[in-house]
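Protein in question kept in full:
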Amino acid sequence: EMERIICLAAGYLCGLFQTGYIYGKLHGIDIRSYGSGNSGSTNALRVMGKKAGLTVFVGDFLKTVIPCFITRLLFKDQPELMYVYMLYTGLGVILGHNFPFYLGFKGGKGIAATAGIIFSIDWRLTVICLSCFILLVAVTRYVSLGSLVVSVILLVWDAVQNLRGAYGLIPGRLEFTAVTAVITVMAFWRHRANIGRLLKGTENKVGAKKQ
């Protein structure tokens, strides 16, 4: 339907605001030419420090939260599909963030944007994901592992809420889980190199000295 296409397209346009790329350019570098080569908050943290990492994360987080909030307002009279439309908006942001057309489709990995989706959907899910992420990263120092686990939690949570009939979903139940699955698969696809390094034990750790 047209509503889904509009949400996806509007999300993509919001995702084109490349916080990491813009922050790097303001400091005289193309962040994609350093570290892991992507423009996300983890690479900004590794290349430019904590302030850069936090700034980029907040920017990428808000560029999902704001359009998802607007989507919620626009479709508040359609509670049975409102959350589905929010997911389409969030997916659009991730696509815009990961594949910005004006940067040769070379962007980030979409985790901060996914965090924005999580925050927009349910505060309880936010608490669970944040707690698991902090615990995993604190123990393993692997941001990629924490990110992947959070994306799985999102899928499991949405599937369970779907079965419970939460969020007012009636005609959009299967679609709700399907779109969430796409978001999770996207996270794993963008982290495929990280997964390979995790399996080999060579993944970069937070706080490790630069080589």
User: Anything to note?
Assistant: The CA atoms of residues 195 and 201 lie 10 Å apart. The longest helix spans residues 50-74.
